[in-house]
Amino acid sequence: MLDPKLLRDNPQAVAARLATRGYVLNIELLQALENKRKKLQTQTQELQNNRNLLAKQIGQKKSKGDDASDLIAAAEANNQQLQEKEIALEKFRKNYIIFIWKFLTYPMNPYH
């Protein structure tokens, strides 16, 4: 099994090792996928942090008896965006696993 951390940290070494077994690792594609994963992960975490901040602010306003409808609307919009990012991240992770799995099952054949 390929170690995802090793694949991220040292794709050249992984590519060299896979080459000895007849596999070709597209390092550029792998790095593009990793960059996309990082971006999605960061965006998701930012939305999660924003959700927590909004929830705290809503609680503070309500405890003072103030109107929190503006924050509630912002929280609903944030939650919608968060849900979309979480779905996108999960889809991406599944596709990433498929990408890696191909290297575990299909050696590259130069005659095909």
Q: What does this protein look like?
A:
By secondary structure, the protein is mostly helical. Helix content is 79%, strand content 0%. The protein has a single domain, classed as Serine-tRNA synthetase, tRNA binding domain (Helix Hairpins), CATH 1.10.287. Helix 3 packs antiparallel against helix 4. The chain is rod-shaped, with a radius of gyration of 21 Å. The model has no long low-confidence stretch (mean pLDDT 87).
In short:
With 112 residues, the protein is mostly helical. The chain has helices spanning 4-9, 11-19, 27-63, 69-105.
What characteristics describe this protein?
mainly alpha; 79% helix; 4 helices; Helix Hairpins; 112 residues
Rounded to an integer, what's the Rg over CA atoms?
Answer: 21 Å
What percentage of amino acids are in beta strands? under 5%
CATH domain class: Mainly Alpha
Mean pLDDT: 87
Looking at this structure, what is the CATH superfamily?
A: Serine-tRNA synthetase, tRNA binding domain
Order of helices and strands: HHHH
Helix content: over 70%
Low-confidence stretches: none
The CATH topology assignment is Helix Hairpins
Look at the helices and sheets and give the structural class: mainly alpha
CATH architectural category: Orthogonal Bundle
Oligomer: single chain
Shape category:
rod-shaped
Number of H- or I-type helical stretches: 4
Largest sheet, in brief, is: none
Helices and strands in order:
Layout: H1 4-9, H2 11-19, H3 27-63, H4 69-105
